[in-house]
């Protein structure tokens, strides 16, 4: 029977069946020294080491097997889009604060897992970054990233409040809740961190055949009333 509860059970089962953890990084951790490149190894050192050790301490938040501590932080990623109605003009992204009303949670968002992050763009809560390199640059130095933010990476027609981007994001950067300790990394170091992040990709997520069991065949699924559930237009878009 199609009920709201059964739909949520079905979606839960579907999501639980998608476990993509067989990454080169896992093989490396399991003892295969050749599973990842030297660049990725250098990137891993920068990712895990503290600032005192010359790293960026990314793992203070992106920790554990899933690379997340499941906590909330203000890391001031650029605010694009309509926001949720916060602030006088309703264009700010107050994030976790909306739930807790706690000043320390203002502009805070949950640390996302970094497993398969290579294929989960656009990145950050608002999708402000369309390149992994740019989001890594942001995480190393948010102020410099905001000052150099390239708005042309967005398909701007569909995004509201772009005129507020700098002002609202600067407010997050200046807020007491802001949590990133900036580091100055050169382009090679940034590229090495990106290589490390790519080593967290399970090859299955880039292989259509491997993913086939989760992708519906076109034009066959019908609901009990005979409506197509996955109708696809000639251009290949889901209808
Ligand atoms: C203080 C905690 C914290 C630290 C330190 C931190 N991050 Fe993050 N990271 C976050 C949070 C929170 C987000 C989500 C921001 C948002 O949604 O706007 C995030 C987002 C990201 C994303 C985008 C993921 C996605 O799916 O959109 C990447 C990639 C990332 N961080 C990598 C790094 C790297 C690399 C470092 C170290 C240079 C780092 N982070 C340091 C908390 C942290």
Percent of residues in beta strands: under 5%
* Strand order within the widest beta sheet: 1-2
Name of the CATH superfamily of the largest domain: Cytochrome c-like domain
Bound molecules: heme C
Q: What is the CA-atom radius of gyration, in angstroms?
A: 20 Å
Task: Provide a descriptive summary of the structure in words.
The chain is globular and about 50 Å long. Helix content is 31%, strand content 2%. The longest helix is centred in the N-terminal third of the chain and has 13 residues, at 4-16. It folds into 2 domains: 16-206, Orthogonal Bundle (Cytochrome Bc1 Complex, Chain D, domain 2); 207-239, no CATH class. It contains 9 helices and 2 strands. The protein has helices at 4-16, 24-29, 38-48, 97-100, 132-140, 142-147, 165-174, 187-198, 208-211, and strands at 72-73, 109-110. It has a two-stranded antiparallel ribbon with strand order 1-2. With 239 residues, the protein is mostly helical. The model has no long low-confidence stretch (mean pLDDT 89). The protein starts with a helix and ends in a 28-residue tail after the last helix. The structure holds heme C. Heme C binds at residues 47, 56-58, 60-62, 73, 75, 77, 109, 111-112, 114, 117, 120, 123-125, 135-136, 139-140, 179-180, 193.
């Amino acid at each position: 029977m199609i009920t709201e509860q059964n739909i949520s059970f079905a979606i839960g089962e579907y999501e639980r069946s998608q476990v993509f953890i067989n990454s080169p990084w896992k093989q490396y951790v399991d003892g295969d020294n050749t599973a990842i490149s030297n660049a990725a190894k250098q990137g891993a050192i920068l990712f895990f080491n503290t600032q005192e050790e010359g790293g960026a301490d990314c793992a203070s938040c992106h920790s554990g097997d899933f690379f997340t501590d499941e906590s909330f932080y203000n890391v001031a990623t650029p605010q694009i889009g309509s926001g949720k109605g916060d602030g006088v003009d309703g264009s700010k992204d107050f994030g976790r604060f909306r739930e807790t009303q706690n000043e320390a949670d203002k502009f805070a968002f949950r640390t996302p897992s970094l497993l398969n992050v290579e294929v989960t763009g656009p990145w950050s809560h608002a999708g402000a970054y369309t390149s992994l390199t740019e989001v890594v640059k942001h995480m190393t130095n948010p102020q410099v990233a905001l000052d150099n933010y390239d708005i042309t990476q967005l398909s701007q027609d569909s995004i509201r409040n772009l005129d507020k981007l700098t002002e609202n994001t600067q407010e997050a950067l200046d807020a007491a809740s802001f949590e990133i300790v900036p580091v100055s990394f050169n382009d090679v170091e940034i590229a090495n961190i990106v290589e490390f992040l790519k080593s967290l990709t399970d090859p299955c997520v880039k292989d259509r055949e491997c993913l086939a069991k989760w992708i519906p065949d076109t034009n066959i699924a019908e609901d009990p009333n005979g409506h197509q559930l996955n109708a696809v237009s000639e251009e290949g878009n889901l209808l």
